[in-house]
Design a protein that fits this description.
Helix content: under 10%
Structural class: mainly beta
CATH superfamily: PCu(A)C copper chaperone
CATH architecture: Sandwich
Order of helices and strands: HEEEEEEEEEEE
Number of helices: 1
Largest sheet: 11 strands, mixed
Distance between the termini: 26 Å
Shape: globular
Length: 157
């Protein structure tokens, strides 16, 4: 907003940035730490099909030792698996990933249109505002539980 002279009102931009940041973060889980692993930005969209949902998050390895993400399960799905996207000529297709390496000092990013956790054979339909309990298995760290908020389909990251 500006004054009649065209001068921006002081502090309005800072308030707008703070409000937009809060809005963007309200449908993501807070950062959690488990040993040397830090998890941020976890969320799932409300599924558009009755049988499948996807989970997205980032995990950073803050330690000095490599780890490997080896599996997952969720309280609302009969099965869960990691999918990656590979180029096949001009096409892109999903492929199952048995494990995802997590080097010391590195990150794994699960996001729409790329690597993601696919939940299949849902036992209930999560709705915006619900949470999904997701257990991740790491070779070194072991099991880590994320509480993943469900947001309306198509809302921004």
């Amino acid at each position: 907003m500006t004054l009649a002279t065209g001068t921006p009102l002081p502090g309005r931009r800072a308030c707008l940035v703070a409000a937009l940041t809060a809005l963007a973060c309200r449908h993501q889980a807070p950062a959690i730490r488990s040993g040397d692993l830090e998890f941020t930005g976890a969320y799932s969209f409300a599924p558009v099909t009755p049988d499948e949902a996807s989970v997205y998050f980032r995990v950073r390895n803050l330690g000095a030792s490599d780890d490997t993400l080896t599996g997952a399960n969720a309280d609302i799905a009969a099965s869960a698996m990691f999918h990656g996207i590979i180029a096949d000529g001009a096409m892109r297709r999903m492929t199952r990933l048995e494990r995802i390496p997590l080097p010391a000092g590195g990150s794994i990013i699960l996001e729409p249109g790329a690597t993601h956790l696919m939940l299949m054979h849902l036992t209930r339909q999560p709705k915006p505002g619900d949470s999904i309990a997701v257990d991740l298995e790491f070779r070194r760290r072991g099991r880590v539980r994320l509480t993943v908020p469900v947001r309306p389909y198509g809302t921004g990251d």
